[in-house]
From TrEMBL:
Coiled coil: none annotated. Keywords: Acyltransferase, Cell shape, Cell wall biogenesis/degradation, Glycosyltransferase, Hydrolase, Peptidoglycan synthesis, Signal, Transferase. Its EC number is 2.3.2.-. Residues 1-24 form the signal peptide. This is L,D-transpeptidase. Residues 70-206 form the L,D-TPase catalytic domain. The active site is at 166 (proton donor/acceptor), 182 (nucleophile). Pathway: Cell wall biogenesis; peptidoglycan biosynthesis. InterPro entries: LD-transpeptidase (IPR050979), LD_TPept_cat_dom (IPR005490), Transpep_catalytic_dom (IPR038063). Transmembrane segments: none annotated.
Length: 206
């Protein structure tokens, strides 16, 4: 049993080294991060944190990479998003990522941001799921909208990549590969990231 624990710890350290961040020590959870809260015309429901693994809850961690403050790093392997902070720190969020066949990696930037965005399924998605055709003109904002409370739109070379960092009402999907390529966060987390991230910020997806 002790040998298995050592192997597990070694695997965790290796995975964290790939992301350039360390959460083995000095990680700090944000208190009451997932309580119910009013947000414009809506009220975000509380997230049952007891059902969310600690590793996917918002927390401040040590950061050992070389990216500048404000950079967003998406580690699809560990299912974490890091926002680089001053003084060797980063804020880490749990994420959901693209399912098999929809993964992607590379660099982009935050082109623009929207509160309670309209969701418009792309043509390719409607082709795969014809029942979504009713939203061809856009699904109005709300608690059931797939983009959740906020969206950060990723661009590259001046054009829209089609990918988003966005919220989701499906908090249970965090830590899993279920999306069509976009990176999803719990609604309370995307609201927090939205307030901190600047338009033009570099986004690195690994």
């Amino acid at each position: 049993m002790r040998s298995n624990k050592k192997l597990l710890l070694a695997a965790m350290i290796g995975a964290l080294a790939l992301s350039g961040c360390s959460t083995i020590s000095n990680s700090t959870l944000f208190a009451n991060a997932y309580a119910s809260k009013s947000d414009g015309a809506y009220r975000l429901p509380a997230i049952p944190v007891s059902k969310v693994s600690r590793e996917f809850r918002r927390q401040e961690v040590n950061y050992t990479g070389g990216e500048k403050v404000g950079t967003i790093i998406v580690d699809t392997g560990s299912r974490h998003l890091f926002l680089v902070q001053p003084n060797g720190k980063a804020i880490r969020y749990g994420i959901g990522v693209g399912r098999e066949g929809f993964e992607w990696s590379g660099t982009a930037k935050v082109g623009w941001k929207r509160e309670w965005p309209v969701w418009t399924p792309p043509a390719a998605m409607i082709k795969r799921q014809p029942e979504l055709a009713k939203h061809r003109g856009g699904m109005k904002p709300g608690l059931s909208n797939p983009l959740g409370a906020r969206a950060l739109y990723l661009t590259k070379g001046g054009g829209d990549t089609g990918y988003r960092l966005h919220g989701t009402p499906e908090w249970w999907s965090i830590g899993k590969a279920m999306s069509s390529g976009c990176i999803r966060l719990m609604n309370q987390d995307i609201v927090d990231l939205y307030e901190r991230a600047k338009p033009g910020a570099k986004v690195i997806v690994r």
